[in-house]
Amino acid sequence: MSLSITGLGSGFDISGIVSQLVAVKEASTITPLEEKLNALNTKNSALTSLKSKYSTLQSALQTFTKTVYNSSSDIWSKTSVSSSNDAYVTATTSGSVAAAKIEMFVEQIATATSAKSVHSLGAITKEELENAKFENLANGQAKSGSFSMFLNGKEYGIEIDKEDSLKDVINKINESSNGLIQAKIDDNGNFAIQAYKDIDGEKVVDVDASLILGSAGDTSNLASALKLHSKIDGGYSSSYAVSALNTSEAMNSAESGLSGLKFYDSDGNTAESGKIFINGEEIEVNGDMSINDLISKINGNSDTKVKATYDALTNKIILTSAYTGQSNISLSSEGTNLLNVLGLTEGEGENEILAKGSQELGQNAIVHINGNKVISNSNTITGESSGIANLSLTIKKQTSDYSGNDKDEKSVTLDISPDNSSIKEALEKFVTAYNDVVATTKTMTESGGKIGRDSSLNSIVSQLRGITSNVSNNDGIYSMLAEIGITTDTTDLSKLKIDSSKLDKALSENLESVKLLLSDGYTSDKDNGLFDGILKTVNNALDVERGYFKTQGESVQSLIKSVNSRLDKANERLNAYEIRITNQFNKMDSTIASLNSQLSTFTSYIR
Asked: Among candidates 505, 512, 523, which has minimal Cα distance to 477?
């Protein structure tokens, strides 16, 4: 509350006097409680931090003592595997795999099935190709403009207009040199340009002529658009049939280059859309879609289990299975003949079947493991196929007996051995966690530490430190940690350290004895291993019902609650004290003011 302090009547600094009196009172009642509360909060925070370090130590110990045999989490059963040549076979292990050397021969790599159009798409009849607009060819990539031809060093040129058909282009080529250079397209859609000569008034192919197509100054790409890559007598022929297919145009449009595409309902009437099924996955299609749209839709649906592509050289759709092995890609249609038009199926309705020769079956992987023939539909061979549990093989390349190449490896050897590096790394984590617990406890419990002297905590640490001198009565050849290279640090006897070479020797020569030393419970119900004992101590400290951190934490929390309550009451009393003395000083000030007034009046009478 707001206090009014004047001092006008007495002339005293009543506000300063009250503040000093309240400060004295506060120092004797509030400050000790605040200091005690701060100390308790510090101790509570320290206990939480130390508990976390004990939990880290617990986890490090459980790595060795709470394992499940043949599990991927079992530190003792971890193995490593190396291949004599990773270019042929790689391998990984999980869980327990017996140490061994495995000789492998790779007979066959698994491949994926592919379905491919049985005919070149857009390769319409010779007459239709001749009448097709030149700029629609080569999937719409053919360009009009100037085009040069050099016959025995003499240049002949033509100009291809935007509206020219392929027949127009052929005529322009033939007329440019009075028949010495001639172009034609055959019934199979193959385009050719050849040099001719006159013999007795008749034009015949000039096999000795030098014909060069195109120059750097040309603006038309006729030669590359029509794929004039194959050398023939006196000239060049297209390496693939010329196609009018345009994958960007709507499939039901004349510009697409597809012909015969239909969509129909169950009664056979014309419809706007239909369905295709790839490996049982339904995809709705319609004539407004382009080939590019169809490919994107297929690839956007992982349930089709295929990858669709368009081969611009052969002008064919290719579906490649997402999985290797000998299995067909299932294809069928409903309400459309699109798959027929794409050359992937033939027949319609119940009579629709895979187009003959359209699918090239993938093959299974075949390997020989220690003389046993193993067949897998995948290049990743698991224990289910090989019979070697927890071993996974990845096949990459045939060995020489099957590749036919003497430079290939004759065989590949896999070396499986215990993964001692994992055990060593886990022991290093234990030592780090142990040293952290011991050092932190020492700092926190010494004079002036955040926890202060604590006999219970010191007793726990004393039990932990006993591990360096404890003896394990087990069936192995080791009975103390020092025998496997874990000893106290000579520069700080409270810390552990690892002799790396000694530990490596123990792990490589007597792994089973190291197991028994650390955790006898791993192989029996005795739990006489050194880590079994120390884990019991740590577990007791962390017990959620009666453990040290549980009881100490509750005790500190109770004290914090009690001090907070006392602090609240002390603040209430201090506020009341301030009000009381302020009122008292104000009354005194008022009395003095009244007396001064009376004195002044009396003095005036005397005068």
From this structure: 512
Tens digits of residue pLDDT in 24-73:
888 888 888 888 889 889 889 999 999 999 999 999 998 887 654 445 56
Residue closest to 285 by CA, chosen among 565, 535, 348, 293? 293
DSSP letter (8 states) at residue 481: G
Q: Which residues contact 517 (CB under 8 A, 6 or more apart)?
A: 472, 474, 476, 478, 479, 480, 481, 483, 484, 529, 530
How far apart CA 110 and CA 495 sit, in angstroms, is 56
- Count how many Cα atoms sit within 13 Å of the Cα of residue 482 in the half-sphere of its side chain: 9
- Could you tell me the sign of the dihedral formed by the alpha carbons of 171, 177, 179, 185, in that order? negative
What residue spans define the domains of the chain?
A: 50-75+421-541, 79-110+364-418, 133-237, 254-360
At a CB cut-off of 8 Å and minimum separation 6, what does 596 contact? 9
Residues whose CB falls within 8 Å of the CB of residue 330, separated by 6 or more in sequence, listed in order: 277, 278, 279, 280
Distance from C-alpha of 230 to C-alpha of 235, rounded to nearest angstrom? 9
What CA–CA distances, in Å, run from 252 to 271, 296, 436?
A: 12, 18, 75
Name the residue among 60, 15, 18, 71 with its Cα closest to residue 436.
60
pTM (predicted TM-score): 0.64
DSSP code for 355: P
DSSP 3-state helix, strand, coil percentages of the chain (rounded to 5)? 40, 25, 35
